[in-house]
Amino acid sequence: MLVGRRPEGHSGPVDDAPRSLAELATWLPAYAADTSRNLAAVLMTPGEHLAPQQHWGCVLAAAAAVRSPSTSPALAGEARARLPRDLADSALAVASVMAGHAVYFRARHFLHGSYDDLRAGLRSSATIAPTAPKADVELCCVVVAAVHGCEACIGEHEAGARGAGVTREAMNDVLRIAAVVTAVAATLDADRLVTD
């Protein structure tokens, strides 16, 4: 399945998709030049505010959260190659749990407190008793919550991350990761639907 336009001169099969961040950048269409620059600036190298395992854990969690056939495999492959298996598994566990939590808590938020007295009853050992450092887990929670647009989850996990020593600048980098992963996925997935 071709999920984006093949770059000029690409000789892979029609159902091929980018396999690395560098290749992913070449698949972005010309009209997405800003998204391509953001991909290079935000995703390709960890900045000064996040430890490398935090950066790549958030990239992996965001890749799982966007569920993009054109983007997620390249991002996940790149991140997994840079993370120890236990940290990669932790990022994916957080993405799995937060996918459901974001839906539930976003819906409750829309109902303006009408259900706040009821227990959620949703398991979340990946976030409550994590196998990875608390700050790393909270950052992955924030990136997934941002991708899913859950204000309540973002607030809860931003406070947890800040309580675990995460700086405002590091939090800003995590939000940028969520934004860029989402933009790249939206661009490549939509490109084949809206262009000739």
Protein architecture, described:
- With 196 residues, the protein is mainly α.
- The protein has a single domain (21-116, 123-194), classed as AhpD-like (Up-down Bundle), CATH 1.20.1290.10.
- Helix content is 66%, strand content 0%.
- The chain contains nine helices and no strands.
- The protein has helices spanning 21-27, 33-43, 52-66, 72-82, 85-110, 125-128, 134-148, 151-163, 168-194.
- Helix 3 packs across helix 5 and helix 3 (52-66) packs parallel to helix 9 (168-194).
- The longest helix is centred in the C-terminal third of the chain and has 27 residues, at 168-194.
- The chain is globular.
- Residues 10-14 have low confidence and may be disordered.
Question: Main attributes?
Answer:
9 helices, mainly alpha, 66% helix, 196 residues, AhpD-like, globular
How many strands in all? 0
**Tally the helices: what do you get?**
9
Order of helices and strands: HHHHHHHHH
**What distance separates the N and C termini?**
16 Å
CATH class: Mainly Alpha
Query: What are the low-pLDDT stretches, counting only 5+ consecutive residues below 50?
Result: 10-14
Q: Summarize the main sheet.
A: none
Q: Could you tell me the mean pLDDT? A: 89
Task: Estimate percent helicity.
Answer: 55-70%
- Give Rg in angstroms: 17 Å
Strand percentage: under 5%
Return the CATH topology.
AhpD-like
CATH homologous superfamily (4th level) name: AhpD-like
Return the structural class: mainly alpha
